[in-house]
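Lab notebook: predicted structure, single chain.

Context: the supervisor wants predicted structures on file for every construct in the current expression panel, including those that have not yet been purified. This is the next one on the list. No modifications to the sequence; it matches the entry in the shared construct table.
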Amino acid sequence: MILLSALLYSAPVTLSLDLTQPGVKVSPNLYGLMTEEINYSYDGGLYGELVRNRAFRNDPEKPANWTPVGPGSEIALEKTGGVNANLPVSLRVRGAVANEGYWGIPVRPGTAYQLYLWAKSAENGTINASLESPDGTVFAQTRVDGVTSGWKKLSATLTTSSGIAATKEARLVLRTGSQPVSLSLVSLFPPTYKDRPNGLRPDLMQMLVDMRPKFLRFPGGNYLEGNTFKDRFPWKKTLGPLEDRPGHQGTWGYRSTDGMGMMEFLLWCEDMGAKPLLGVFAGYVLNKDYVKAGTELNGFVQDSLDQIEYIIGDPRRTKWGARRAKDGHPKPFPLECVEVGNEDGFDDSGSYEGRFVQFYDAIKKKYPHLKVISTTGGKDSLGVRFPITQRRPDLWDEHYYSEAWDMMASATKYDHYDRKGPKVFVGEWAAHDTIAPWAAGAQAGPTPNMKCTLGDAAFMTGLERNSDVVEMACYAPLLVNANPGGRQWSLNLIGYDALNVFGSPSYYAQKLFSENLGDVTVPLQLAAVPTQTKGNQTLPGIFASATRDTKSKVIYLKIVNALDTPQTVNLDLKGAQILGEGTITVLSGDLKAMNTIAEPKKIAPETSALPTGPLTLKPHSVNVLKLPTGK
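Prediction complete. Output recorded below exactly as produced.
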């Protein structure tokens, strides 16, 4: 284990790497992603759909996000006579109507946008569709022919010219003329990642792919549970064509289209090269209602088994495996882990153990190879709550949302963790500055500053040093629409608006840690480490971890300087020497500095050749060294 000295010296810090001593195997699944529908992460974020309130169900009383265009135009909700039971509401339009999307519809030069809609009218007719600015500048236009007296799905393509400037100040306008037309499920998609139908936003996907995640935890935390039982994630209703998906009320104040359904989550994993980590609904919801273990819970347990079967079931021998094949993916997905519930430590009734046992036994009986994760029992920031005693989970899920100082203090948390207990899944974690992210809301952020990043990076050094017990870890939340109306949580890893995307300093720190990771740890010691003090608590000012790739013989050394002064470090390698040119990548900046839409790379990594002699660390910096060795 690492020894972090709290002594204050004027002499340089000594960092010793000892390759004569065995390290521990680094978990091959250490770094991944956690996702849920918060901050318009899916609708208005990763999910490619550009039309907001496409099925007219966001407000039961008025056509939210839709406005009449021009004199004499009229629009009204029609609450009956919809396309089907899943699309009961339609919009009656006379004249013209506009949708401004999620804080603007982005248009780019030379781009084709696919428009789909359901329509009917008393007389056959045509709809003129355009992408245009609020002042009437037209970026693209087309005709949608084939409107008849019965509901009919129609499509068209809107293509912008190569000469326009990219802008998010656009809207979709549909002109019906004097003849009233009823519309339903109006959808507009730009090009998507890997050109998948109903797919994902390419620039955001690339940011995620670049992190090299080993897993994706989905469909989310609170989003999995729902505020009430009817609001839980309805995975079976998210399958198939969009007209078969009714959507549901989310947990963060807005409705979900469920365009991001089970198949879309799985394809998201596949396109990132990540394994799915499935969270199954376990009979507890956010208003603290729950189902007791026993007969009442059986239906929920069976639903989770169906869900697992959809992911890995044989397409020829199982009902839900066949349904997956029908949905376009005969090959099973590489599921290894299933998490039962989410943060069930908040269930004050203490019912989780009984519920967990019922799920655990059913899952292990049918799928003995799967790892089953408990959401309680670990020593996380929620405290020790309801440890599981009747069954041994394969992993605990521990969550940490801590002030940056406390996150740095947690860097040694797992140094003395019980190696005989279940493995650890750090399923949510993030450092904050002064105000907790759930309390600050849209008044702070929307992404972490450099102070938070130092706490995050220091904590990650502890995860790496102890990756024999910490099997998986993922930051949360992952995504945020940076518009003030788009966020409910103040600190998130990646920010965006309709047109732009940026990574926070913490995003770059996580990316650096993930892409510079060996397969075994290298034992290390820090000596003569300056300290930092807050109140009566003293912490080291420098944190470190090291791993080695046994094939390439490269050592990846991470050093965090949390101090406001440069620090000189002497590297001492025992049992190996640096052969060839090493590199150092540095992420540093003022504690309050953060990246934004306007300055997306104000704080970003810079890589240079490793200097000879002692190493000087910048103040407030995260440093990643690549050291090629002959052993």
